[in-house]
Structure prediction request, 161 residues.
Amino acid sequence: MTDNAANGQAPAQPQLSVQKLYIKDSSFEAPSAPHIFQEQGQPQIQLQLGQQVNALAPEVFEVVLSVTVTCKLGEKTAYLCEVQQAGIFGVAGFDDANRDAVLGSYCPNVLFPYARQSISDMVQGGGFPPFFLQPINFDALYAEALARRAEGGADAPALNA
Prediction:
């Protein structure tokens, strides 16, 4: 029996709040410009995702979603676009497993549209055709990370608390 229940109060309900959304870092490089604009061919796009969770205070976390898009034409890099989209989230009343799920799945889902827009704006502003990142299933990525962690995989993400 919890103290709240003993006092006749309902147990605290889990609460999630978005306190702040911001770009922590961003960059755009077009190392082969202006000559790359005259190149012909099918671009090859490579996408890299990363995530970091930092505890800022009890029940307050910074989540940083890193998205890197590299576009190549043949051996030449047309552009390299990187965004670290971050947010500060209040996460209260969750047990450890559910808190980790919120931070590892829900929070990146909140951040992703902002990162996608930043990348799209930078690529187009760099003189290239519009680029739109396809939706990403962060629930599935989190489930894969849990499976790797359970198998003892070294590259499974962990909270930096």
Summary: The chain has three helices and four strands. The chain has a mean pLDDT of 89.
